[in-house]
Every structure is written in C-alpha cells, then in structure tokens.
Backbone:
C-alpha cells in the first residue's frame, strides 16, 4: 500500500496541512523541531491509534487547541483507494459533555465502533530512535513490539489482548479484595470459586495469546536472521526465543497450555492474593534476543543494538507483507544519521519495493555517503520535501 | 469549541447525556427539543417518568420489573414451570419473549459479577435465585442467558458451579455469529462458541 495524501488539523505543530505523496521514497529534510517526525507520527497513528512516542493523545493536540484531526488517503496494492481518519477531542473542563476525551475513528467515512476494528486496515512499520527501547527497556517494550505486529496481522489477536487486560483487571481487583477483606475468604467456603470463574477465562485467553506469540516468533526469527547479515555484512546469527510463564510452551498445543496455566494460577493463588496482582501470564512473558549465542542486553554496543533492532524491523516489514499480501509503508525517523555508509546502503537496498518516509537533517545523509553512490542508484523513485516551520515544500534538485 | 449554556439547560443536557446511547450532540438536541415544546409536554414527560418510577417494582419471585404482584409470567398457568432462564436485565426478557421460542420462567440478576465495579455475587439477585431453586422441586433446568461478556461469562460459570451436583441441569446459550456479519470478522471466542454450539439442520 502507499499513501497518496495526508491532511492534518491542529496536530502537533501543524495548524492545517494538506500534502500529496508519491511512490517510492519520500525524503523529509530540514532542521530539528520543524515538524518532520510529526508527519511520521501522524502516519503511524493511523495503524493503531497510538503514537510511537507517547501514550497521551493530549500531547498530540496543537497548543491552544482542543482537538486534532488526521486523515490519510492511501492506495492498496490491489489498487483500492481507502481512507483512515482519526478525530480526537481533548477534555474540556467547563463543558459537561466533554469531561472525558473522545476519539472517533473513520474508515472510508464510516465510523468504527472499536479501535480493534481499525487494526490491519493501514499497515506501517516505524523505525525511530525510540525503538532501541526494545533492547534497552524491560520486557514490556518487547511485548509491545510482538503485540503490535500480531495485531496488524490478526485483528482478532488485538481483541484477545483487550479481553485479557480486562480479565486481568477483574482478577486483580478480586485479589485485592480477598487480601484486604479476609473475611470474604474465611467466611465463604467457596472463595476459590470467586477466583475460578476468572481463572477459567484468563487461562483460555492466555493460551490463545501465547500460542500466537510463539508462532510469530518462529516466523520472524527466520527473517530477522537473514536481515542481520544483510545489514552488518557479516555472518551473524540472530535468534529469538519466547520466555513464557508456561514451561516448554513451544511443545504444547493450546488446550494443554490452557490446562497448565489454569493449574499454575490455582497453585499461585495464595501468593497472588498477598501481592494483590496476578504473577504469571502473557503480561509477564518476554522475548529473548541473542546474537551469536549471546543474549543482547542493554550493555551491548550501540552499533550492535541498532543492527539488531533494524533487523527486527525489516523482518517485521517482510512478515507483514507475507501475511497480509500488502506491502506496509516504512517510516524511518532519523535513522540514516545513526548508520555508517555501508549499513545505509544495505538498508536502502532492502526497502526499495516499499513506499518509505525518511527524515533527516542533512540531505547528504541520504544522497551521498553510500559508497560514493547516489540515492538514485538504489531507489528508482524518490521525492524530496523541505520541512520548515510546519510547511512542506517539494524540492527538485 | 466549548459552549456556555445557561445553568438550567446545562443541567438538563448533562442529565440526558447520562442516558444510555445518548451522545454529546444527541443530548443537546433532546434538551432543545423539550424546551421547544409547550409546558404541557415537559410536565407530562416528567410525570410519566416519576409515575413509572413509583408504580414499577421488582417481582418478588423473578425480580423482573412489574406492576402486578407477582409478575405476569410468574403468575401465568400457561408457562413451563420446570425451567428458569437467567438473564442480567429485564430488557433481556423482552428480547427473549419476542422470539417466542421459550415458554419457561425467568430470573433477573440485575447485573453481573464484576470485582472492578465492586459487584460480587452478593450484589446481584443470586441469593433470590438459589432460594427459589431450593423452595421448588419442579425446576429441572436452569438456562444461563447472561451476556456474552467476560462478566456475563463469569456469572454463568459461578452459577453453574454452585448448581453442580444438585441434579438441576445447567445450560448456556450458544452465542453465535451475529446475523449479517462476516465469519472473517468474528472474534475467536465467538467463532469457537458458535462452532461448539452448532446444530443439525
Ligand atoms: Zn416474576
């Protein structure tokens, strides 16, 4: 798929922007804080209604305004013209009807009831400085990576995640009640029944999530392993493993997994009650990345971290295309400056059949320095845009 | 974008906005509609609301909303008294009655178990159901028709476990794919249940 046009209203530093885009690479260059990344952010927002930089929608609204509107027109690989629009209204304290934020999502003009309905409609893969969190941060960042990928491939997975979160909140609430009001547990002989009705559903939902994650890790691991050698130009071995609350989960079918989870939830119920939260399940699992047999940790070298994340992202891109039959849009936020000439060259080679959006402060980062060759040697079609004070100007060299 | 309404209008708008299914724009439209009618209209509307509130109470047997004691269904001699269909809200009875498939009795729980909303088994009309089952030896089946939500499911499970070993059969509605929707878009839970609940045709 490729984006044909975008319209932003009161989004970040844009008051109103209408801009057409073209096949191939869209290169957005200009000084910092002019609005380059905001374009990528708006595009990414249209995949899952969540910014890659912040979880707070209110930060996306232009100063002094109380709503933003993002509209994206795109063409699928089957040549269908489609549109996603997100209209967000921030809370207004003196308006009784706007005490809570409101977000409306439209697909081809029709309002979608739930966020889960938008998953898989428009797909993009972003590679931004924030993505190093996949390695630097805790397991949550790695789960988020898996979850977003899976949600784009299987919209039903996203609904499972939401349901899981909901079940977990219910169970944790109950655990706290059982802890703080022990008489519920003491006087009521069937207190286990209170938990059981949540455990039943939770273990079901967990088994579905875990088996999907395992499946996608197996698939993406192969692709990432191919990408890493392409990026570094060295013979390297990148492997991925799912660390689950269910021991040896990879050999189990869904039903066996469900039973083990159910048993473990019961076993650990006493601990869970003391803690007031659920100690095991997909919300505690992790994705373990190893390079040449050694786990990639936050103290790995910067270059190594970048190569691993880039390999993951390229694998994500390939897998999404394989699974959905549509090539996702690639968003590269300030990535070129972080890579040396060789890596830049290999990256540009890999992305040529996708529409891509690249930001940089200096055009030389994309135009030269790739083994003395020009961008045009790698990408047939590209368009340059200068971004200055929330205005885009198409530049012809 | 924020509008400043006179306080009385603002109060009416936010009261109407609390009604289910009424959004921001809808409540404004309703408020201005009501104020645009003559005095009689507003008087009748508020009288109808408070009247209904005064006259309607819960049936002492099934906890449905009723004007009579007990309710029409509970006092009918035409109904099958061996089965009770358990629902979350009185509205659900209306829906089930419309399809004219079921001729048994009902029981309204007035909610579903939800720890995050401080609703435990004691906060819904579950005790009333258990007493009812104890006092009658006619009941052979309890149909659990709570909503297909995690709370409805938890409540159905809870009741099913309580009735285990009592000799009363418990059944759960097979929640299928909503008519007019695509299989592709049905979530896995729905699809799985629809599959398990499939019937001969
Ligand atoms: Zn009754």
Residues:
């Amino acid at each position: 798929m490729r984006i044909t046009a975008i319209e932003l209203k009161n989004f970040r530093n844009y008051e109103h922007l209408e801009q057409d885009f073209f096949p191939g690479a869209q290169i957005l260059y200009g000084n910092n804080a002019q609005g380059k990344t905001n374009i990528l952010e708006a595009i990414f927002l249209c995949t899952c209604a969540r910014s890659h930089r912040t979880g707070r929608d209110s930060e996306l609204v232009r100063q002094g305004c109380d709503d933003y509107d993002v509209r994206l027109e795109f063409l699928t690989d089957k040549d269908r013209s489609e549109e996603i629009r997100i209209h967000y209204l921030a809370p207004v304290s003196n308006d009784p009807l706007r005490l809570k934020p409101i977000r409306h999502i439209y697909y081809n003009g029709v309002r979608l009831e739930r966020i889960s309905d938008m998953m898989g409609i428009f797909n993009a893969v972003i590679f931004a400085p924030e993505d190093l969190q996949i390695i630097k941060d805790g397991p949550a960042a790695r789960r988020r990576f898996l979850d977003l990928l899976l949600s784009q491939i299987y919209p039903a997975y996203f609904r499972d995640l939401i349901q899981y979160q909901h079940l977990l909140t219910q169970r944790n609430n109950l655990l706290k009640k059982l802890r703080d009001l022990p008489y519920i547990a003491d006087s009521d002989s069937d207190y286990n029944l209170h938990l059981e009705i949540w455990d039943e559903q939770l273990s079901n939902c967990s088994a579905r999530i875990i088996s999907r994650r395992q499946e996608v890790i197996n698939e993406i691991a192969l692709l990432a392993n191919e990408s890493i050698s392409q990026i570094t130009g060295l013979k390297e071995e990148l492997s991925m493993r799912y660390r689950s609350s269910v021991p040896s989960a990879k050999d189990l079918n869904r039903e066996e997994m469900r039973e083990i989870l159910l048993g473990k939830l019961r076993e650990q119920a006493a601990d869970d009650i003391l803690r007031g939260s659920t100690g095991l399940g997909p919300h505690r699992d992790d994705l373990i990345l190893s390079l040449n047999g050694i786990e990639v940790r936050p103290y790995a070298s910067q270059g190594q971290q970048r190569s691993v994340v880039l390999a993951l992202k390229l694998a994500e891109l390939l897998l999404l295309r394989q699974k959905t039959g549509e090539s996702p849009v690639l968003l590269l936020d300030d990535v070129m400056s972080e890579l040396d000439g060789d890596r830049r060259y290999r990256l540009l080679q890999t992305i040529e059949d996708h529409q891509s959006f690249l930001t940089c402060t200096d055009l030389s980062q994309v135009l030269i320095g790739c083994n003395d060759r020009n961008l045009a040697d790698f990408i047939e079609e590209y368009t340059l845009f200068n971004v200055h004070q929330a205005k885009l100007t198409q530049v012809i060299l | 974008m924020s509008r400043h309404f006179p306080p009385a209008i603002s109060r009416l708008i936010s009261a109407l906005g609390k009604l289910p299914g009424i959004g921001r724009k809808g409540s404004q439209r309703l408020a201005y509609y009501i104020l645009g009618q003559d005095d009689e209209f507003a008087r009748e509307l508020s009288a109808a609301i408070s009247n209904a509130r005064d006259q309607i109470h819960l049936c002492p047997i099934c906890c449905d909303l009723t004007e009579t004691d007990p309710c029409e269904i509970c006092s009918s001699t035409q109904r099958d008294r061996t089965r009770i269909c358990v629902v979350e809200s009185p509205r659900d009875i209306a829906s089930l009655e419309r399809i004219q498939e079921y001729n048994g009795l009902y029981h309204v729980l007035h909610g579903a178990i939800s720890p995050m909303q401080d609703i435990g088994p004691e906060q819904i009309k579950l005790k009333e159901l258990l007493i009812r089952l104890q006092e009658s030896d006619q009941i052979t089946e309890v149909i659990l028709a709570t909503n297909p939500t995690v709370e409805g499911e938890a409540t159905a499970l809870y009741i099913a476990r309580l009735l285990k070993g009592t000799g009363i059969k418990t059944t759960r509605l097979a929640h299928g794919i909503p008519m007019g929707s695509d299989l592709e878009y049905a979530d896995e839970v729905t699809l799985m249940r629809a599959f398990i609940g499939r019937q001969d045709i």
In short: The mean pLDDT of chain A is 88.
